[in-house]
């Protein structure tokens, strides 16, 4: 082989090696166990969190609507209390206006009766004439010179409209307090019309607002027509000040949002039906939504915490699974390398089963490799034996053949007989070759047409491959000699092949009958060599050759262990 040819051959071998090497085909979307566990956690956790969040928001919206109705109801309740107090003042004025002392102009008596009526109330009553000068004031004793009346706007409107009027908030300098007036025109029976003015103080409504239950975070205030605070649930500091959150007049009633100084407020406005005032309840939207925001925050942080725990657990589980997978990978590599693999308990039952399967596969591979090596040695041994037999056949046939044609014919038949023995040996390798089948197969080529001229009888005996090959060659040579010189050469010859089993020894008997002794050649042929040498050496057989008057007889004794070595004994 030239150098170029060697290079080409080496390249071809390398290409063949690359082709035969296992290929790793990475499937699209192939990820580690950690990724799949994380995906499983997300698939389970995210929908639950999303559903919980949506449910929480929906419940919060429902709760907010309920709160809105509660805020409106609470504000309306305050407005009713204010209207009730003012209505009580109007009733007082109405009753007082019917006094005969007022009609008669007896202010001393009228003052006395008015003080008695207002004894349990923090209020004052004035009587103004048409020029709005004071005729009587329960704050001063009768006969005291009364000052010019202040804050007469409500009285002027009442006299002009002939209808009761409630004033806005004003500061009563005489009392040093914030107050308001309720003015009612009175048509006297004698003299000009007069106006009764009942003055009360803002602190009266402060008690009303403070005793009302309003939702946490909410405040309420009573404001007059100029948006001035009359009373507030937050305390008296706001009284007399403008309400700090401006709202349009269009917000006559109901629930709305107002933005003031970058802060969003929720406001409920309930106007008074009698006074022209308004009750306002308000709260920053942030404080109203704080419970929902806290719940959402708990949901988010709780979800994050649960997700963290789940991811941590998934990490450790994946670590355990990855360790088991790596161990299984090493087992598979040892299996591929033909090394011993021991089963190992894994943290996951299924992986333990895989480990046991790999160990079992390694054990079976070891056994299979041992069987293959045994078969290879057996094939080599049998090949050597067959070559030795063929060589002996060749040498002996050459010595006994006078012509090339005779040599070719004799050698061909002997090789054919050897081939038949080999076929039987291969087809019955596991259970052994049946001796009767072997005898019939080797005689078949030489068997005469009359079936009664061949007798084959004996118990069932199974032969191993080596003894079947040797014994088959011996029977073939005996049949060949019978065809040339013995029972098969004439028209009346008979061959009896029998065997018996006695004390673990097989007695094999080849007997030819009705054969003239003069036909038997004097020199030893190949058959004699096979019988004497191969049978004696290979099987340890004891041979006996007897020449009877009517034919030859071969008897040999072989131990049954020699014939059935390596197979089950079945007789």
UniProtKB/TrEMBL annotation:
Keyword match Plastid: no
Domain of life of the native organism: Bacteria
Bias type Low complexity, positions: 9-19
Keyword annotations: ATP-binding, Kinase, Membrane, Nucleotide-binding, Phosphoprotein, Transferase, Transmembrane, Transmembrane helix
Chain segments carrying region Disordered: 1-21
EC number: 2.7.13.3
InterPro entries according to UniProt: HATPase_C_sf (IPR036890), Sig_transdc_His_kinase_HWE (IPR011102)
A GO molecular-function descriptor: ATP binding
Residue span(s) of domain Signal transduction histidine kinase HWE region: 378-460
Reactions performed catalytically: ATP + protein L-histidine = ADP + protein N-phospho-L-histidine
Bilayer-crossing regions: 35-57, 296-318
Pfam families: HWE_HK (PF07536)
DNA-binding keyword on record: no
Gene3D superfamilies membership: 6.10.340.10, Histidine kinase-like ATPase, C-terminal domain
Protein name: histidine kinase
